[in-house]
Amino acid sequence: MNKDRFGQMIFGEDDLMDMVMRGEDLATKREILVDETVDIERAIHLLDQIPRFAAIKQHGDTIVKFDELNQQNWHMPQEYKDLDIAQHILDLCEGEAEIQRVGEELLLYQERDMFELLKYLKYLVDVMRENRVIWGVGRGSSVASFILFKLGVHRINSLHYKLEISEFLR
Fold first, then answer.
1. Poorest-pLDDT segment among 4-13, 59-68, 98-107, 116-125
2. Residues 43-65: what's their mean pLDDT?
3. Are β-strands 2-3 and 33-34 bridged in parallel, bridged antiparallel, or unpaired?
4. 76 with 123: CB under 8 angstroms?
5. Mean pLDDT of the region 91-106
6. In what order do the strands lie in the sheet with 9-11?
7. pTM
8. How far apart are CA 33 and CA 150, in angstroms?
């Protein structure tokens, strides 16, 4: 954040994001001056995508209750909420071995009620690709999930390296 020659605050894109993440409602601000590096269209799109998290006090006294309530509300566009994630992942498969592994993993994800998480991960990867964000090749037990590999969450082909899904979904 800088000041112009008249002493007015000039905000960059990072400043705007910081304000939103601190819970400030930018819509109530009369006027916000931004520097020339801010792509206004992109900033508006990004601001619309940021979830507004409620305070723990509004949802009870425990973090567990807060987590339960917030985990039911995945902040993603409707097209991702409506996506048949199982079919989408199956469509990404090449060959019988991949279909077999994905089918096995999908049953495990379904048992754990994790399809909304998979939809959100698809959305997250799409947004990162769209905005040319670089993320790691994969780490920890997540690389044992072939589904996460097919979605692009990581780049480790668990079929190739014979990694068992049980290493991930314990």
1. 59-68
2. 58
3. unpaired
4. yes
5. 97
6. 2-3, 9-11, 33-34
7. 0.63
8. 42
